[in-house]
Amino acid sequence: MVLEAQSEALASRALLGSLRAFCLPGGEAAALRVRAIRTTQIGEMRMSEAARWIPFTADETIEATCSSFRWEARLDPAKIGSPTVIDAYEEGRGRLVVKLGGVLPIRKITGLDADRGELQRYLASILSCPPILLNHPSLEWSAIGAGTLRVGDRADVAGASVAIDLNEQGRPLVCRADRPRIVGKEAILTHWSATGADFREYEGLRIPSHLEAAWHLPEETFTYFRAEITSLKVIRESGPQ
Question: How far apart are CA 22 and CA 30, in angstroms?
Fold first, then answer.
């Protein structure tokens, strides 16, 4: 048992080191004092395979030192009074809020399922905020296969985790999890995946400029979200370097 645990620990460290090397081509110095990554995005999303794609513009802030993110989007931005969506995990709680015209709340989802689902989205966002790999103190990593890492947060009580598949160079191929999917008033655990493509370097950080997410249903798999990063800002703590 001791040898098995040691072998698992070595495998975890090796995979994590490979992931860090790919995502931080500028080395640890590139992640120094990075508090968050802030992006603007354009994209489109839909509710089902048969539904129309709805365009959006969005701003997102992903924290690097704690499990927290906020994605705020305006749907159909060319239309007057179009809805806004806030998808967030902040202070240990997840929520999805839809407001008509950015003012009138027409839907709000909170609770344990939202906590789990939004934390899983945050954990998959490591692709878009690689300083998390060095600066987040409560993440737990374990190898669950020859090229797969599982990550969770020790501070989490909802049982959230995400598996990240890597290639031989440490490039993240896909993040996947069983994630609560809201169907009417129910939350159904459904296999989910998120991917990044067209990786580019920003201040020594390697970040995908194209993002996609999909639900994998028994009868079909459908991509429901795709976005392009149009601008990116690395937010660092003030003080001596």
Answer: 12
* CA atoms 140, 87, 215, 187: torsion sign: positive
Round to whole Å and give the CA distance between 198 and 115: 30
Query: How do residues 26-80 score in pLDDT, each as one tens digit?
Result: 999 999 999 999 999 999 999 888 889 999 999 999 999 999 999 999 999 888 8
Of 162 and 105, the one with more pLDDT: 162
Structural domains for the chain: 2-235 (2.50.20)
CA-to-CA dists, residue 188 to 96, 111, 235, angstroms? 16, 14, 36
Query: What's the rounded Cα separation, in Å, for the pair 20 and 131?
Result: 9
- For the cut 60, the answer to whether the pLDDT of residue 240 exceeds it is no
Please state, for a pLDDT cut of 70, what percent of the chain lies above it. 95
- Tokens representing 22? 């790919």
Q: Tens of pLDDT along 206-229? A: 999 999 999 999 988 999 999 999
> Which pLDDT value is given to residue 36?
98
Tell me the C-alpha distance between 13 and 232, whole Å: 29
